[in-house]
Design a protein that fits this description.
The protein is an alpha+beta fold. The protein is built from ten helices and 30 strands.
Amino acid sequence: LYLLQSVPPEGMRPVLHEYRYALPGEPIPTCTLFIGDAVTGAVRPVQCPPLDTPVSVPTAGMVGWSIESGLAACWRKSRDNKKVEVYLIDPATGNTRLLFTEETDSFLFFDFQRSAGSRPDNRKHLPPCFLLSEKLHSLFWLSERDGFMHIYQYDTETDGQCRQLTQGEFTVCQLLHLDAEGEKLYFTACGREPHTRPYQRYLYAADLKSGETILLSRERGDHCVYFSPDGSCYTDTVSACDEPQVTSLWRLDAPADAQPVQLCACDDRQLVRQGMTYPIFFTEKGADGETDVTGIIVMPAHFRADKKYPIVDYYYGGNQTYNQPNTFYDYLNAGFATSLAQLECVCVIIDGRGTPMRGRAYHQYCYRNMGDCAGLQDHVAVINRLCDKYPFMDRGRVGVWGHSGGGFATLHCMVDAPELYKVGVASGGNHYQELYNAGWAERFMGGYDAKTLWAQSIAPRLKRLEGKLLLIHGELDDNVHPGNTLRVVDELIRLDKDFDMLIIPNRHHQLRDMPYYQRRVLEFLAVNLHALR
């Protein structure tokens, strides 16, 4: 692909940038693994088929060492995301042995599980999707094969004999630490404890002898956990969208009644003095009238019960993660929601069907259905239910905004539900999946099929645009190519539709730290929504 830098820092001549980027249906890069000996300098290839890398670089977590460092493993996934093969690697020779194969009729999701819902745990290089132990002759793997993400223990000595370690209607989030001596596996999971919010992670230990799962977390909230390399202690940052975080240090060998060492705690007093409002968590029924859909409401900073307020739906339309803030950190970075509250708007953040972490059935609603933008009809149903319940929410003044997959969703909201959404800001949107990376559309669409993608395309729907729309894109966006927005612009011009557009020179995909961008998003929403009185 090509990007034209119209305003280079030096000189007047625009600069053309070229980079590798496979679109759906195009050939994708592959990589071969090698093992290097740091002492002798010898380098040998790993004897397994090349790994597909649709986003041009090897996916984090494709390969990893055993905890004893004498063995390694890797996985390779089919391009249609329906099959994965897991290989054991002998580092001395590079020889491999296929341990097991897993297949599904829709899409696999194990490789996103370490990052989905893990904010602010955003490590640049994530650990592998598995844990491997020579002492225990075991590889521990995450799979949704029974309907929820659970841990499976494979015997590396018996060609893949397997037992399921966890089971039930909850989601294992991350494999954190394996104590081979004590035969315990530490992990986080959400949805297991009654009366907790669906995405909050809690820390558990699985006893590999008895198979018992033990809850270690004591406080309600999301638990972001890091273990020390020797496994003797861990830090635990506990938080919620309406509860500032506290980070403590815990020792595993401490008595049951021992208290942790508090390392630091967030002080929110200045934010509250500045007028920050805390969100209200809610559960409502989705468009089918049966499924529980959760989200938050951010109330206006100077709320009056006798007023009606415009609504802003901060939306993310990607099927690989949820959007509602799970932690205090998330909340402070959730779509300028607290700023919109200062501008006398009610902000809602909703996660409809098609998003992960709540079981395979909830997530698979997106399969070959990406045009629904991770629950668009659920967003419409929930906003209408909230307006019925709360008279201060004005059904006649609803706006929507989002970035990237949220820009994609915003435009769909404006043309698929114009009776509800009157104002929208679509920022950095991947509006044409045919012009986004091969790994995105092909995963959730069952491979590449031009007719299926076009059937869910935005292009034939743009004639239904009625409200106020602002399109934003960074000129040097090498993630979502600016052509995504310019194709929308071209079609809107052909249809003689009014819209606003902001192209930002010298900016890539990430825009939210730019004050001018912040102001334009907030002003466009607030000014146009309040003008609808």
